[in-house]
């Protein structure tokens, strides 16, 4: 009588462990690949958003500066249409009148707060006054529209009065060493750049303005804008 041998079926413990190790290695490699792809996507999206913000910021700067206009006889003779002034903290503030489709003209400007470049918009046509800093006497000329006030001292620097309704919007962040310079031609047709404006009463608008700044993760940026 012959006996038949039964064949063993299934996996041994060692084979099962080897299979699990292979699956774990494949899973780890797949996860690292997916994680790397996701990190690359997030990095690219971050760069894209950063450049979109920069593009929007420079577009706002250009849009406002290209609308700069002289108000002429609507302002007192000694009151500038365009002012670039140095602040006590070493930064600069640019204030100018620009054409507005609703108000006809609107006071706007730029200043730096920390590492942010701010776009300033006065909510109303602000009446302006000429205020002398002389200790002996003070004379002023005021317009009649609006309820806020602003003063211009003898050196030509515009100072918003307390409570003036100003909308300040951050248009660029991560900026440093922001410097505005304006271009003019002298009486003998020499081309010069100034870091303040106006150089004299009734100077009107400069011919152009240059903006220099350092931007985080971008480097040094320079832009030129023609005003007239």
UniProtKB/TrEMBL annotation:
<keyword id="KW-1003">Cell membrane</keyword>
<comment type="similarity">
    <text>Belongs to the GSP J family.</text>
</comment>
<keyword id="KW-0472">Membrane</keyword>
<keyword id="KW-0488">Methylation</keyword>
<dbReference type="Pfam" id="PF07963">
    <property type="entry name" value="N_methyl"/>
</dbReference>
<dbReference type="Pfam" id="PF11612">
    <property type="entry name" value="T2SSJ"/>
</dbReference>
<feature type="transmembrane region" description="Helical">
    <location>
        <begin position="7"/>
        <end position="31"/>
    </location>
</feature>
<keyword id="KW-0997">Cell inner membrane</keyword>
<dbReference type="InterPro" id="IPR045584">
    <property type="entry name" value="Pilin-like"/>
</dbReference>
<keyword id="KW-0812">Transmembrane</keyword>
<dbReference type="InterPro" id="IPR012902">
    <property type="entry name" value="N_methyl_site"/>
</dbReference>
<keyword id="KW-1133">Transmembrane helix</keyword>
<dbReference type="InterPro" id="IPR010055">
    <property type="entry name" value="T2SS_protein-GspJ"/>
</dbReference>
<dbReference type="InterPro" id="IPR051621">
    <property type="entry name" value="T2SS_protein_J"/>
</dbReference>
<protein>
    <recommendedName>
        <fullName>Type II secretion system protein J</fullName>
    </recommendedName>
</protein>
């Amino acid at each position: 009588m012959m006996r038949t041998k039964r064949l063993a079926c299934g996996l041994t413990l060692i084979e099962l462990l080897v299979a699990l190790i292979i699956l774990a290695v494949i899973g780890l490699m797949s996860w690292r690949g997916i994680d790397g792809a996701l990190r690359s996507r997030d990095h690219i999206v971050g760069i894209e958003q950063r450049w979109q913000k920069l593009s929007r910021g420079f577009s706002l700067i250009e849009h406002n500066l290209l609308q700069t206009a002289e108000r002429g006889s609507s302002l007192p003779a000694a009151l500038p249409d365009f002012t670039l002034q140095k602040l006590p903290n070493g930064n600069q503030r640019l204030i100018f009148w620009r054409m507005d489709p609703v108000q006809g003209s609107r006071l706007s400007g730029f200043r730096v707060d920390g590492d942010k470049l701010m776009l300033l918009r006065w909510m109303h046509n602000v009446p302006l006054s000429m205020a002398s800093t002389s200790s002996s006497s003070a004379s002023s000329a005021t317009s009649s529209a609006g309820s806020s006030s602003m003063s211009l001292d003898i050196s030509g620097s515009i100072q918003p009065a307390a409570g003036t309704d100003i909308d300040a919007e951050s248009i660029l962040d991560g900026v440093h060493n922001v410097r505005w310079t304006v271009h003019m031609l002298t009486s003998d047709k020499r081309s010069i750049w100034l870091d303040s404006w106006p150089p004299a009463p009734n100077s009107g608008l400069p011919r152009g303005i240059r903006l220099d700044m350092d931007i985080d993760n971008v480097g040094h940026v320079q832009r030129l804008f023609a005003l007239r």
